[in-house]
Specification:
The complex is a heterodimer of chains A (266) and B (271). With 266 residues, chain A is an all-alpha fold. Chain A contains 11 helices and no strands. Chain A starts with 13 loop residues before the first helix and ends with a helix. Chain B is 78% helix and 0% strand. The longest helix of chain B is centred in the C-terminal third of the chain and has 35 residues.
Chain lengths: 266, 271
């Protein structure tokens, strides 16, 4: 009778084993550092939650309908902030995207600088930018617009540059060979290839910006966030419930619309 | 025939796009521009002096932030460490909790349709709530401290992570699993040798990605009292101590860039 053997197990080299061991050790060290460093006052947190749970949660689910007018005005302002910000970013990101695209700037060094600028901008959380702009232009919605515009430029510029890098250059060459001038190449060679993707990314970023701009008010940069922080400070959880509902509805609707538009474009 | 008729007139390049599409695009274009202008007017309504005035003021005000006071780096480092630790704990807990949720919201695993739709809708709603709003509510529930911050990060990242991973699970190649079943593997063996190797690299990559998001989110959680470096930043801004605030911002910037760099390298190596 034939014996059936299992296939031999792959042999791991010493180097691989060592590497795996080092990684495991590093992860363990990270967790030890984390759990030794963090201090949670469980007693106080539990005591607070037992006291507050019955007060906060039921109120959150019974929104204060009398504030509908004010909340919808602020939600509209949030949408304005997000739209103006994304629009500015969609335009600002175009030159930066071209700068950071290697096939356009033609020079690895320049493209590298462009990429560094963009990732530098991306590293700032939106709210930190908002703090800077609130100090610069005062606590109003326009500070929020600027924060969203700069924050989105980083991401859009990177996505744009990737789109530009993936352009099919054969089309451009064919146009050049058949005698098209620069303007014609721009309009009929480059634009049809990049415009749909650019638009799609800009709309996608608008989705993100709606979420981002809804919290900008926490640092005074306008929008619904202003009401969030007031409601929290006054412990007005009924109003918070309504605000939460408004955010959920607006974000869901805009996500849905944006997904449909993007599917149509690309 | 067409060439003949064209030869008579002057050769005219035909338009690529039909006239109707052009009209539509023009209308959409002007609608978008109009809405943008209206948004700009509305958002600048409360501003004294308007756009021009603010911009000329901006550089004067920005000067207050410079030079940053680097002597406080030592003093703010513990708060920064807390911020990173919050993100690590939140990501770990979310990564564990996401496994059942992702399985429940993957169409090829959860064949019971109502359950699938319920988890999907739940996750969709969860994702619409901004992290800071969650933090505000949890601070109201648990009081000021790191715990509400960690909880907010867990809930927030759970929404993203479960969606990404359920999509990965849905994209799994079921053929190896069927082959294993045909050759007599039990369910556990199928999961460990068929499913896990297909999902694990993506899973790790997504967890790292969510960790990056959590780091960014946790630096600002303190602004609403949920612990970490944001709390210190808020205090310094409250005292109008702009050089110190700038140092904190620079520290945040450096830490975020460093962590994203490392995480990106690991993710590139994984996939």
């Amino acid at each position: 009778m034939a014996t059936y053997n299992l296939p031999p197990k792959p042999v791991k080299s010493v180097w691989k084993k060592l590497k795996a061991g080092l990684i495991i050790l590093a992860v363990i060290a990270l967790y030890v550092w984390t759990f030794r460093g963090i201090e949670i006052d469980w007693g106080r947190a539990m005591e607070r939650v037992i006291r507050n749970f019955g007060i906060v949660i039921p109120k959150l689910f019974s929104p204060d309908w009398s504030a509908v007018g004010e909340v919808s005005m602020k939600i509209l302002e949030t949408i304005f902030i997000a739209f103006a910000g994304s629009f500015m970013a969609a335009i600002l990101a175009i030159p930066l995207g071209f700068l950071a695209a290697q096939n356009m700037s033609g020079n690895r060094f320049i493209a590298g600088i462009g990429k560094w600028i963009l990732s530098g901008v991306r590293a700032f959380p939106d709210l930190i930018l908002a703090i800077l702009f609130v100090v610069a232009v005062g606590p109003n919605a326009f500070a929020g617009v600027l924060a969203i515009a700069i924050g989105s430029t980083g991401m859009l510029g990177k996505l744009y540059s990737e789109v530009i890098e993936s352009i099919d250059m054969n089309v451009i060459e064919a146009m050049e060979a058949s005698g098209a001038n620069k303007i014609q190449i721009l309009f009929y060679g480059y634009m049809p290839q990049i415009i749909p993707e650019f638009l799609s990314y800009a709309i996608y970023r608008f989705e993100i910006d709606i979420r981002a701009s809804s919290i900008l008010g926490i640092v005074g940069a306008g929008g619904i966030g202003t009401m969030i922080i007031f409601a929290a400070n006054n412990r007005n959880w009924n109003e918070m419930g309504l605000i939460l509902l408004a955010i959920i509805i607006v974000v869901t609707v805009i996500d849905f619309l944006s997904a449909r538009i993007r599917r149509k474009i690309v | 025939m067409t060439t003949n008729s064209n030869a008579g007139k002057h050769a005219q390049t035909p338009a690529i796009y039909p006239a109707k599409t052009k009209a539509q695009i023009t209308i959409i274009f002007f609608a978008v521009i109009g809405f943008y202008l209206y948004s700009m007017i509305r958002t600048q309504a409360e501003m004294v002096g308007g756009f021009g005035n603010a911009l000329s003021d901006m550089w004067r005000v920005m000067e207050k932030f410079f030079p940053p006071n680097f002597q406080v780096v030592g003093a703010i480092w513990p708060a920064m460490a807390t911020t990173i630790q919050m993100a690590i704990i939140a990501t770990t807990v979310a990564a564990i909790l996401t496994v059942p949720l992702a399985l429940l919201s993957a169409q090829n695993v959860t064949t019971f349709k109502p359950l699938y739709y319920v988890t999907r809708t739940f996750l969709n709603i969860l994702r619409t709530i901004p992290d800071l709003v969650l933090a505000v509510i949890f601070v109201g529930l648990f009081g000021i401290g790191v715990f509400p911050g960690i909880l907010a990060l867990i809930i927030f990242s759970l929404g993203i992570l479960a969606k990404l991973i359920s999509e990965t699970i849905e994209a799994v190649d079921m053929n190896p699993l069927e082959a294993m079943r045909a050759s007599g593997a039990n369910t556990l063996q199928m999961i460990f040798y068929g499913l896990v190797p297909q999902v694990l690299p993506q899973f790790t990559s997504f967890v790292l990605y969510v960790f990056e998001i959590n780091i960014r989110a946790s630096v600002v959680l303190g602004l609403v009292g949920a612990g970490g470096i944001g709390l210190v930043l808020d205090q310094q801004l409250g005292f109008y101590n702009y050089p110190n605030a700038m140092t904190i911002i620079i520290v945040i910037f450096v830490v975020v860039i460093a962590i994203e760099y490392v995480s990106n390298k690991i993710r590139e190596a994984l996939i």
